[in-house]
Specification:
The chain contains twelve helices and no strands. The chain is mostly helical.
């Protein structure tokens, strides 16, 4: 890469950070979006309140404290996988991608912007979940190393999920089809170890669960927040922190390599006339 190309790429990344911050502020002024980001952690917090007083079978460890880290991991995965796909389809319909295509390194800036935006909005949801939940899950391990590891899991989780969601969103013909991604994500929650120890599942389900980010993000959050003794219920009786970062890193590399190419290919198929036609279709449906 030449010096000029490197400078142009760097400027695109910086523009992406700025774009992500602007889009975040805009999203947080949308009432429907705010309700969604607040409602989900509130529902999770209520679930943890219901669990108060219950313990993990065979132990004296609070059930809510065991489930909370998994909910944190699931929130990170949902924030990175579900939101971007819908916005990609919408951006294709309103011409946003067409404008990004016309800008040098515009797709890189666009992708970085999406990562920043969904990282910030997901962070809001996670904070709204953790703060009240700590009042009913006081057996968690909370020290500087916990917050550092959680921050690393969060960052890697966003980088490994948002680009993949962008790729999946680019394959969808309309924003309405993102409901299929939600259904697929709910199915993947089953073997992910979020609500039920993965070691109690059939071996083939364990392999399925370990193939996707849901399991590893849940494991990373548990390794940060739970006492070391609780690793006994995990595969191999270990938190497997190194393996967690490796798997999520592989997903990140795949996503970051594919997303810009897929976006450019999708944008090449767009034209002003195509955008206008898509807009008219949306308007005719009364959206």
């Amino acid at each position: 890469m030449t010096t000029n190309a490197f400078v142009a790429r760097r400027e695109a990344v910086l523009a992406g950070f700025s774009r992500g911050w602007i889009e975040t502020r805009h999203m947080l002024t949308d009432t429907a979006s705010v309700i969604w980001y607040v409602a989900v952690p509130v529902i999770f917090a209520i679930v943890l309140l219901v669990m108060r007083g219950n313990t993990v079978p065979g132990t004296e460890f609070a059930l809510g404290a065991m489930v909370l880290p998994s909910l944190v991991g699931m929130s990170i995965a949902f924030g990175g996988l579900l939101g971007p796909a819908g916005t990609i389809a919408a951006d294709r319909e309103d011409g946003t991608l067409l404008r990004a295509k016309a800008t040098p390194n515009g797709m890189v800036g666009y992708l970085v912007g999406k990562i920043v935006m969904f990282a910030l909005t997901t962070l809001v949801s996670v904070v709204l979940l953790v703060i009240p939940a700590l009042t009913v899950a006081d057996e968690l391990q909370l020290d500087p190393s916990t917050w550092l590891l959680l921050a690393l899991v969060f960052i890697v989780g966003m980088v490994s999920t948002v680009p993949i969601s962008v790729v999946l969103g680019s394959l969808m013909k309309s924003a309405a089809q993102t409901g299929l991604l939600f259904l697929a994500s709910m199915l993947l929650i089953v073997p992910s170890g979020i609500f039920y120890p993965i070691t109690a599942m059939p071996m083939w389900l364990q392999f399925v669960g370990q193939s996707f980010p849901f399991y590893w993000l849940g494991l990373g959050a548990r390794s940060a927040m739970l006492p070391e003794a609780m690793a006994a219920v995990e595969i191999g009786g270990s938190w497997r922190t190194f393996e967690m970062f490796v798997v999520l890193g592989v997903w990140a590399v795949i996503g970051m390599a594919l997303a810009p190419m897929v976006l450019r290919r999708m944008a090449r198929r767009q034209s002003g006339a195509a955008v206008e036609a898509a807009r008219e279709r949306v308007m005719s449906k009364g959206y």
